[in-house]
Protein: Pseudaminic acid synthase
Amino acid sequence: MKDIQIGHRLIGPIHKPFIIAEMSGNHNQSLDTALAIVEAAAQAGVDALKLQTYTADTMTIDIDSGDFWIDDPNSLWKGTSLYKLYQEAYTPWEWHEPIFKRCRELGIIPFSTPFDETAVDFLEQLNVDCYKIASFENTDIELIRYVASKGKPMIISTGMASIAELDETVRAAREAGCKDLVLLKCTSTYPASPENTNLSTLPHLRDLFRCQVGVSDHTMGIGVSVGSVALGASVIEKHFTLSRAAGGVDAAFSMEPAEMSALVVETDRVSKSLGQIHYGPTEAEKVSLKHRRSLYVIKDLKQGDILTKDNIKSIRPGAGLPTKNLELVLGRKVTKDVARGTPMTWDIL
Structure:
């Protein structure tokens, strides 16, 4: 599987996981808060910060009833219309440039999720390094094709999509010009439960579509994301906020700075630990071989004495004969005087 380059970072199995902090609407309509989120994300060690580029009018129409009203009792946003939700959650387009500028100053990669062609055109002016497609848009083939035509890496969340739908999406992206693709296993509930995450899909997703894979993780905590690395995730996206207590449309399932920092550290540890199939001592372990058990003389012996379980024993360290030879040496005579603490060797028998 070839590496993908996004900005200054290489993404692939031999590289540390690419960690994306998703700001979403957690800025609560404050540019100062948005910039503070950028700084906290950089300090936590993430590789990239992602926005969402839309307006309420590019997402839906202003109707407060029927299909446009959120009445799902399990929804965080129950009791409002889609239009009002997007009005509250959107990131003003004029904020993108200062947010992107601050990201680049701090060494993290800024990019965004466009939700229509006007957003793509706008983001092209900001020289984004890649594009993200949200789960709810992964069947919007016209948008997929338009983004792919820009020739930049695409990260696509797979929430709710069947294999047939993903096949259509991936074919459309590749045929329209996308050469570098990452598919993110995603469960489109907010928050998501570990039981509905199905990380075992990751190797199958990677092999089926021959691309890099990762997770867009809406579960609480870092466990699911850390575990995903062991199954092949090379990209991890988590929603990010300065404080869940501060509120915000996505704050309830977003990571706080200390959690994000822990995620960066622990996913890197898992990535480094995977290595290759290996048996026997590693180079670092070879020095420890001397502390294995082996056969030692545990009483002073005179020439001609017979070895018994009273005067020879399996103990640490490991300079004597391997313990598997105990039955072979019992009952044999020593050829010379042997001091207590001498490792058993064939030449003294």
Notes: The two ends are 58 Å apart (CA to CA). The domain at 8-54+90-274 is CATH 3.20.20.70 (TIM Barrel). The first strand starts at residue 4 and ends at 6.
